[in-house]
Amino acid sequence: MANKILTEEELVKQEPEELKPKETSRLTTTMQKMADFDFNISRDWMVRQIPFAFFIMILLLLHIHNVHSTERIIRKTDKLNKEIKELRSEYITILSELMSESKQSNVAKKLDTLGIKELTTPPIKITY
Question: How many Cα atoms sit within 13 Å of 6 on the Cβ side?
Answer without folding.
Answer: 11
